[in-house]
Amino acid sequence: MTEPPQPSEADLRYRERGAAWTALLWGPLFALLGFLAELATGGPLHTIAWVLVGLGLAAMTAPWVYARKRFLSVRLTRETLWQGREPLEVRRIAEVTDVGAPAGARVLGGGWSVPRKFDEVPIKLDDGTVVLAWAKDGEALRTALRGVLES
């Protein structure tokens, strides 16, 4: 499995980012709220402690964001469907409409099952096997796949 190349915005047909780096701001914002609460109540100010809390929460959030961006991102171009770090060439896709999901179908992206809170999108390949793609908005991915296959 290789790192997916970054396609141009014009080439993208569908995208889910997995997570945004703006989540790193949550911890410092919570720390700022704590500092402002101390300031408003007139109690002792623990400025250095709040700075450390904000940095600590941001540091704990960074691996979470990185993992979600790496393993839960979905991208579709005219040539490739990327599920996490796993590519699937679009030319291998035979069907996306009315495909049933048989028990034990391989999940794209390398997981044992479709990620929690994601919709499964069964895809029939050119060799007759069925694999499970996934997306937060399964119907939008299915529609984008149909559009790419028809073009």
Explain what this protein looks like in three dimensions.
The protein has 151 residues and is an alpha+beta fold. It folds into two domains: 14-71; 79-150, no CATH class. It has helices spanning 26-41, 47-71, 138-150, and strands spanning 14-16, 74-76, 80-83, 86-89, 93-95, 106-107, 119-125, 130-135. The strands form two sheets. Strands 1-2-3-4 form a four-stranded antiparallel β-sheet, covered by helices on one side. Strands 5-7-8-6 form a four-stranded mixed β-sheet. α1 runs antiparallel to α2. The longest helix is centred in the middle third of the chain and has 25 residues, at 47-71. The protein is elongated, with a radius of gyration of 21 Å. It starts with 13 loop residues before the first strand and ends with a helix. The mean pLDDT is 91.
Helix content: 25-40%
Largest sheet: 4 strands, antiparallel
Which percent band covers the strand fraction?
15-25%
List SSEs in N-to-C order.
EHHEEEEEEEH
Low-confidence stretches: none
On the 0 to 100 scale, the average pLDDT is 91
Span of the ends, CA to CA = 27 Å
How many domains is the backbone divided into? 2
What is the strand arrangement across the widest sheet? 1-2-3-4
- How large, in whole angstroms, is the Cα Rg? 21 Å
Number of distinct helices: 3
Number of strands: 8
Secondary structure class reads alpha+beta
